Amino acid sequence: MIRAIVGANWGDEGKGKITDMCADSSDIVVRFQGGANAGHTIINDKGRFALHQLPSGVFHEHITNVIANGVALNVASLKEEIKQLTDAGIKFNLLISDKAQVLMPHHVLMDVYEEERLGDKKFGSTKSGIAPFFADKYSKTGVQVWELYDEEFLLEKLKTMYEKVNIQFKYLYDKEPVDYMEVFDILKGYAEFIKPHVTDTSRFLRNAIKEGKNILLEGQLGSLKDTDHGIYPYVTSSSTLAGYSAVGAGIPPYEIKNITVITKAYSSAVGAGPFVTELFGDEADELRRRGGDKGEFGATTGRPRRVGYFDAVATRYGCEIQGATEVCMTCLDVLSYMDTLHICTGYEYDGKVYKDFLTTDKLYKSKPVYETLPGWKSDIRGIKSYDELPKEAKAYVEFIEKELGVKISMVSNGPKREEILYR
Ligand code: GDP
Questions:
Q1: I need a labelling partner for 44 at 20 to 30 A (CA). Which of 90, 163, 177, 239 fits?
Q2: Are 161 and 280 contained in the same domain?
Q3: Rounded to two decimals, what is the model's pTM?
């Protein structure tokens, strides 16, 4: 059975925890898109870990973890991540696709220079080189992992590549050129480091499917950051959708039977872009401080996240575009302090109320239409069954379920693996 675990919103929905939890019954966990630009926080008996590229199955020795072809492979950052785990005495199995593309040193520089150039008009990039990386991938000038092992060919390729890169660095950004021989040496180091892990992961997965293995596809970010269907241009540069996992992992699309979509009991987002239910001032500060397990701050960047009330319009869209077969709501415990709960059920734009998600320009001008429900005002952490939740908490979950039109099969009431209520 193949299950995809993906986000309904702007990312940071708590996918890491749910993936880690579901990993117990999986044989393989796969990352199929994104790169080192975002992260999951996983808290388990071994500690608190921020994962960026490593699949969340790394905490289970019986699992094979796959970094598939769709990932922007940042080897320098992967090294750090692997060190974090080996220092904690964690052993794991990792395979890396021979067709994954390698993030190059100039991608990170370009990301930084371009944001500098844009000034006020910047995108709020994480500056990890993701946009320039995908630009190179789709203009077919990038380097796939297998190319690292043909040195003569690679050297020729780098020479041509950096002629162009250096023209851009000099004339557009007024920056120092990059020495392609230095890049060549860096890449040789990368090649050696990842060599024991490199294989044809698509074939590995297709065989595993034939053998009836349980495979978990782990998404990064969420629907609203999808390049095509998100809040363009404030999106990421690879698809965040379960549908893309067929391409990003090299498996047949019809094999993905379960699409578990994660949403938080409130909204949070990083980076620029429209955010209809965003809160500001003291109200925002309080939610940000109480959110997640240590406040709403980015797992990769430490940036304070933007926070707001639950947006049922955005989340329904997010679930539909993912093709959700079930929904998991996380962080319900965070809302225990609120007197009244607000749920956005429509967007008021140009004198009309819309139930459908709109294009970016219209989102900027939309005002949220709220339904309010009473809060439960008691700590719900430690509760072990859904039925034992206060009736107001159940009413909140069930109201949202109706709005989404998909079964909320799991509710998470704390950051730990065992803090989960099944319905
Ligand atoms: P991901 O990228 O989707 O995995 O999300 P992040 O890890 O960036 O953010 C989710 C944050 O919420 C992490 O700090 C988690 O430890 C935390 N978290 C997950 N589920 C719950 C929950 O049910 N309650 C609380 N309080 N925190 C949670």
A1: 239
A2: no
A3: 0.94
Cα 284 to Cα 340: distance, rounded to the nearest angstrom: 15
Mutate to test the pocket of ligand 1, among 293, 338, 416 (most ligand atoms within 8 A of CB): 293
Q: Active-site residue among 20, 24, 27, 40?
A: 40
Ligand 1 centroid to residue 214 C-alpha, Å: 24
Instruction: Please list the pLDDT of the chain residue by residue as tens digits (423 residues).
Output: 999 999 999 999 999 889 888 888 999 999 999 998 877 777 888 888 888 999 989 999 999 999 999 999 999 999 999 999 999 999 999 999 999 999 999 999 998 999 889 888 777 777 889 999 999 999 999 999 999 999 999 999 999 999 999 999 999 999 999 999 999 999 999 999 999 999 999 999 999 999 999 999 999 999 999 999 999 999 999 999 999 999 999 999 999 999 999 999 999 998 889 999 999 999 999 999 999 888 998 766 677 899 999 999 999 999 999 999 999 999 999 999 999 999 999 999 999 999 999 999 999 999 999 999 999 999 999 999 999 999 999 999 999 999 999 999 999 999 998 999 999
The residue behind tokens 């349980």 is 214
Using alpha carbons, list the distances in angstroms from residue 369 to 269, 276, 308, 354, 355: 20, 10, 13, 9, 10
- Give the max Cα distance, the chain: 68
Ligand 1 binding pocket includes 292 (Cβ within 6 Å):
yes
User: Which uninterrupted H or E stretch holds 404?
Assistant: helix 391-404
Q: Are residues 299 and 345 in the same domain?
A: yes
The atom of ligand 1 lying closest to the CA of 39 is 2
Ligand 1 pocket check for 16: Cβ under 6 Å: yes
Q: Are residues 44 and 151 in the same domain?
A: no
**Is residue 72 located within the same domain as residue 212?**
yes
The finding on whether 299 has its CB within 6 A of some atom of ligand 1 is yes
Q: Are residues 185 and 44 in the same domain?
A: no
Q: Are residues 189 and 223 in the same domain?
A: no
Q: Is 333 in the pocket of ligand 1 (CB under 6 A)?
A: yes
- The verdict on the CB of residue 417 being under 6 Å from ligand 1 is no
Q: Each residue of 239-272: b (16+ CB within 10 Å) or e?
A: bbbbbbbbebbbbeeeebebbbbbbbbbbbbbbe
Among 179, 194, 209, identify where a domain stops. Answer: 194
Full residue range of the structural domain in which residue 145 is found: 101-194
> Coil, strand, or helix at residue 134?
helix
> Which domain CATH number covers 189?
1.10.300.10
342 catalytically annotated: no
- Give the CATH number for residue 396: 3.90.170.10
Q: Encoding tokens for residue 4?
A: 């995809």
Q: Is 41 in the pocket of ligand 1 (CB under 6 A)?
A: yes
Ligand 1 pocket mutation, candidates 267, 294, 331, criterion most atoms within 8 A of CB = 331
